[in-house]
Write a structure and sequence with these properties.
The protein has one domain: Rossmann fold (3-Layer(aba) Sandwich). It is 42% helix and 16% strand. The chain contains seven helices and seven strands; from the N terminus they run E-H-E-E-H-E-H-E-H-E-H-H-H-E. Helix 1 crosses helix 7, helix 2 packs parallel to helix 3 and helix 3 runs parallel beside helix 4. The longest helix is centred in the middle third of the chain and has 25 residues. It binds NADP nicotinamide-adenine-dinucleotide phosphate (NAP).
Amino acid sequence: MDFKKIAIITGGSKGIGAALVRTYVKHGFSVFSLSRTAAHPHPAVTSLLVDLSDPTDALNALNPLLKRISRLELSEIVFINNAGSLGDVAPIEKNTPESIQKTIALNITTPICLSSSFVKKLKDCKTSKRILNISSGAAKKPYEGWTVYCSSKAGLDMATRTMALEQNSEKEPVKINSIYPGVVETGMQRQLRNTSEKEFKNVKRFIELKNNDGLLTPTEVAEKIFHLDTDAVLENGAIVDIRQL
Ligand SMILES: NC(=O)c1ccc[n+]([C@@H]2O[C@H](COP(=O)([O-])OP(=O)(O)OC[C@H]3O[C@@H](n4cnc5c(N)ncnc54)[C@H](OP(=O)(O)O)[C@@H]3O)[C@@H](O)[C@H]2O)c1
């Protein structure tokens, strides 16, 4: 395996993450996927199995890898916080404390912990270093039934902006961005379409998008994210909606 170009992708087993794994591999990257089930097998892909809703377990999976990577002479490395979940799609009084905690941990606590470790352990690495946070338009627009999801994505965007600001004064900075992938046909959309209107008032909109071929495919989204990342068009701290490109 050529360890010159590395991509570490959370949630590389399904949906957008699986498409990101395929895309980065296609472009010559060695890829590490962190999720509960393995990414599609490929000689350039290593799967680390971990439940990312536990930030300590997440760090225990990532840190030994970062230690190994910090000794390599890389030409570039990207860390993509992609794993995420809607949690309970329902009015807030129907969300259980356990589900709220796990969803917040998966969508924001773990991405911040892993980003912190990435920045720290690769501080002296003189190479192109990037963090991409896969966020959502739900960070800006409230949807009834999505309190936890919208809040966690809004928090993730602020983490992007704050960490990016800190990096501006670093000698070997990490570039950090948030990306909104649009509405993409994945397991997450299937979960949404199976929710009752009582729990999620906007369900019809998502069913109509599917019926009218209005959904993006994971592959086209992953290609767009890849080019945004590697064509160096993103300003540090920018939050980009790929539908507006
Ligand atoms: N699809 C959309 O329309 C859409 C729109 C806006 C934003 N997004 C964002 O895009 C990202 C990817 O979403 P997707 O639509 O591709 O979702 P998906 O098809 O449901 O895939 C989610 C991925 O996250 C991983 N994951 C979930 N819970 C995990 C856990 N506890 N520990 C470790 N890994 C976990 C899953 O892997 P395992 O099951 O193997 O653990 C899977 O690989 C998310 O951050 C989502 O918020 C999606």
